[in-house]
Amino acid sequence: MMDNKPEECSVCFNDYGDNQLRPRTLPCGHTFCSQCIDNAIKNGQVTCPSCRAQHAATAATQFPISYGMEALIRKLKGIEVVPGETVPAKPIKTPARGIGKKLRSLVQEQKSIISSLITSCEEVLSQLGEYRGQLGDWKTHHLQLQDRLYALVEQNKSAMKLLELEDTSVVDMTTQGEEGKTQLQAMLGSLDTVNTLQEVDTTIDTADECSTKVEDWLQKCQELFPNVKTVHTSVKVQETIREALEMTTTETGATADPVHLGDSASSIMNKVQEITGQIHQKQLTVEDLRRMSEPVKRLVEAGRVLAVQEDQDGRRSARITLQDGQLYLHSLPRQPTPAHAHTLQESEVVGMLDPSCTLVFLDLGWAGSTRGRVTIRLTPDTPLARQFVLLCTGQRGHTYRNTKLLRVVDKGQPGERVRGGDYESNDGKGGAPMLPDLQGRYRRSGQAGAVRALGGLEGPRCAQFVITTRDLPDGVQWSNVFGDVVSGLDVVRAAVNHSDITEVIVVDCGVVLPL
User: Cβ(515)–Cβ(292) under 8 Å?
Assistant: First the structure.
């Protein structure tokens, strides 16, 4: 349905404007105001209010401003007609008389050239307007960063003042201690040379007085040092600044290599996005993930770490998330890699998997929300297990993501089971194998949670899967079992009890990575 009010946000119904009402476009193509995007961000993700697609996000500012929408709004406002008035008709221009057909053709050709140039001017002027808006945003971001840097500098100065005061106190107490030690050493010498009772009394009195001062000094040192506030402030400020520096690039714009601008026919903003994409996307390594230092952990929790795969159709990227101390690699949708992303090669990340214990997950959802995660342990080194991993990660382009559960069999009876996984037609008629030969040594099982292939190991639908939700009668077992649900069987059972199983969607899928 056409949007009759493109100038307003479809969530809050406010007209787009400055600051928090500027229109921003999500990777799925839908546009909303900055304020509504910020309000929709939960746990490092934003769900599109229109298509329910999920995108990694920490703030609305990471999504591009829709300068085209702003230009359209300006144009709409410029030609807005006051109610009750009519738009004056343009006068009809009659062709010039008195010139020949050939000359008129030359005139028309010249007019066409001029009109084309005017159109080109308007396009470039619009691009310049968008670019200037982007420059304004960057200036604002620089000022905000500058304020934050100033705050860090002020914290550092305050910590330095505390350290200087503490150092002065230590110097004063050190001087007092050295004087006390010298006096005690002198007393030892005096006690060795006393000869009379009067000298003994005098020297002992002096030694007692000196000993008391030193004992007081020792007590004071124990009470004063270390100053807890000083030590705590210094360590925390150092840690904060060090982490901030570790998360910044080591190369500044002044020393960075020049970035190729691509095709000269590209628009100004396309070139800007290409430049910022090449600068902001930083490479991590698998070892960084394994070590999971605090800076890397924060990046993962913020949704800024992605695994990327390049193929003939371009680049795809998969989220890497951390939940309850477990690392997950999600499926590979075809979407642009966000700015400020830290990337790894998807093949290297998949290489982290332990062949002897592969865990995959399916996130099931219905009625517009994700209801829970189902984790499955696959039988190692079997073709069906390898095929399941391929379709959970999307390494070959196809994935279980956004597929429906298709049918419940023997509902409420022993052997109750649910079928899904038609990545081709999503109606139960597709699901061709991803591997040429699926023959292997498979288990048999009649237990709830068993995951098996649909039918045999050949045919056009053997990439579809079946999950058993109730035990079979004693002695009865399924064949071609290649996995077992280790957590989330309650989620599958809740899906089975939903009024329409075809409304249950595999919202996302992927593999569990070892730490």
Answer: yes
